[in-house]
Amino acid sequence: MNFGLVPALREQAEQYMHDGLHITIDAPEQLPSLPAAVEVATYRIVQEALTNVVRHAQARTCSIHFALDHGLDVEMCDDGRGIPAGHRAGVGLTSIRERAAELGGICEIEPIPTGGTRIHVRLPLPKE
Fold first, then answer.
1. What is this structure's pTM?
2. Can you give the chain as a three-state secondary structure string?
3. What is the pLDDT of residues 68-90, one digit of tens each?
4. In this structure, which CATH number among 3.40.50.150, 1.10.1040.10, 3.30.565.10, 1.20.120.80 belongs to the domain 5-123?
5. Which of 25, 72, 89, 108 has the most beta carbons within 10 angstroms of its beta carbon?
């Protein structure tokens, strides 16, 4: 990614901000240099999550928060209609889980009690 992960995601988010959807990206000013596999997986995970918000959630807002804790944490929350109880994961949610698992990461996808969906992904980073 020529621009870096966060600028590339900001550019991607701008393309989804239509019909009243507002997307915010909260990230450290400067992410450390990430392994290419982590950078690409993170980009694709966020891209897939945004696609799901646009296609299915009927959300007004979507926030994406990056943190460096015990790896790279990405949390995406929307205020849409949420995932119905008993819903089977489609291709999008399955690919998000698989991308995280391929890198030894974790992925949690859950409803937000006030409405909407929360996706949390943690990808491990190499030790310094």
1. 0.91
2. CCCCHHHHHHHHHHHHCCCCCEEEEECCCCCCCCCHHHHHHHHHHHHHHHHHHHHHHCCCEEEEEEEECCCEEEEEEECCCCCCCCCCCCHHHHHHHHHHHHCCCEEEEEECCCCCEEEEEEECCCCC
3. 988 999 999 999 998 877 777 77
4. 3.30.565.10
5. 72
